[in-house]
Amino acid sequence: MILGIDLGTSMVKATAFSIDGRCLGSAARRTVLNYLGAGRVEQDYELLVQSVGAVVREVVASTGQTPIAIGITGQSDGLWLVDDKGHATQAAVSWLDDRGNPYLKNWIDNGTFEAVFRRNGNAIFPGSHAPLIAAMAAADPAALERAHTVTYLKDAILQRLTGVRVTDASDASLPFLDTRTREYDPEIFRLLGLETYRRLLSPVIPAPGQAFPMTRAGSELTGLPEGIPVHAGPFDLPACAIGGGVRNVGDGLIIVGTTLACEVLVDEVRTDGPPVGMTLCLPETGRWIRALPATVGTASLDWILGIIGADATDVDRLLAQSRPGAIGVAALPYFSATGERAPFVDVNARGMLSGLNTSTTRADLVRAVCESVAYAARHCIEAAGLTGNLYVCGGGSNSTLWSQMIADALQIPLHISPRPEVGARGASMAALRVIGVDFDADAWTRPEGVITPDKAMAAHYERGFAFYQEMVAAARPLWHSPYRV
């Protein structure tokens, strides 16, 4: 078997797969996000390390097999500061943290933001390395001096398992990489005024990646034998594309997760369009993922569910109780404190509910938010340039009615990516390729079914999408009003 580890924002998971792609078992531990107020969100890296050891031991015990290799994927961005042994020097700053907002806003205002995009096709957002490094350099420069490496979570875990300090080109793509050459771009560091901190970044592994043997320390953590190859592959957005069935240029994937990630496989880096989204290197050269990861997603739905005292198990029941259009209730789902990053960038973007009256029900509120996320998916997937098949995965896709709503809003068939754990599946596939094991990619990524759009709903959702765009246009001046409290 092969083991895929997915270091998500809300869960750490380990999933075992047979060489023909069957899921043999999975284990998970919930992560802890520490909300410190004033938009600050941190995580305890050492606690995550222990969770990795626990889930690996659990899934290996349940299968009774030792993996031939381990593939790692997970959340990107944030600020993970470690020493030369890969141990945390302080709490990690989550990608959900908004302390980078003023630095990004300044870069947007002075043209630096667009200048970086024109070099590598990546739009910086508040939770990415550049603004968080800038914020820490201003508020706590000693923290950066104490650290040996400013890294990403999956690369920090790789170092704990193998002792190797590297990163892959997908993580490094945003913001400092020349995505064509896969080398750091000195001009980007200069534009951002962060040349001093180049030394803190890990070397980028050349394509198609590399696996490293597990050390004694890794063995003690996981209970696995020393020497097992460990591959720190692409982070979760490209890994999901690989595991979700995206194979041909123009194919796309919608991940209905904490964020709504809409992505399309491309064969060139384009920097001439609007400065938005990400251009992420895949393991193979000449291929990139054009990603528009909106901050809306299940996080927006969870927020409204919490407001009304419901949870994810209630979603389909509530959607069934409210007809399309939610009796005039409409939403903008930008509830993240960091604003929005796709298909437009605005750190001041905020959520909105309109059309409320005394007849509005809890179900109407849920439907309005779900419809707004569906419209955001259409907005992003059109901007990403989809021309081929479209796949769907993520926790939100487990809702039958919400998935149908997304298909209806796009009027595009949604191929259901193989479950469970699409990200871990992609990480496992990438690892198998690197260690030279032949496998049937079609078997690994065969869709579980297709959600066909209801043509009878096309006109309704066309009007709804137009109104959604009108709401965005009307709200944007309000987000920047001098009278905003």
UniProtKB/TrEMBL annotation:
- Keywords per UniProt: Kinase, Transferase
Could you tell me the Gene Ontology terms of the biological process aspect for this record?
carbohydrate metabolic process
Q: Which InterPro entries match?
A: ATPase_NBD (IPR043129), Carb_kinase_FGGY (IPR000577), FGGY_C (IPR018485), FGGY_Carb_Kinase (IPR050406), FGGY_N (IPR018484)
Q: Which domain of life is it from?
A: Bacteria
User: Which residue ranges does the record assign to the Carbohydrate kinase FGGY C-terminal domain?
Assistant: 321-432
Annotated GO molecular function terms are: kinase activity
Domain Carbohydrate kinase FGGY N-terminal, first and last residues per copy:
1-243
Q: Which family does it belong to?
A: Belongs to the FGGY kinase family.
Please identify the protein, giving its name as recorded: Carbohydrate kinase
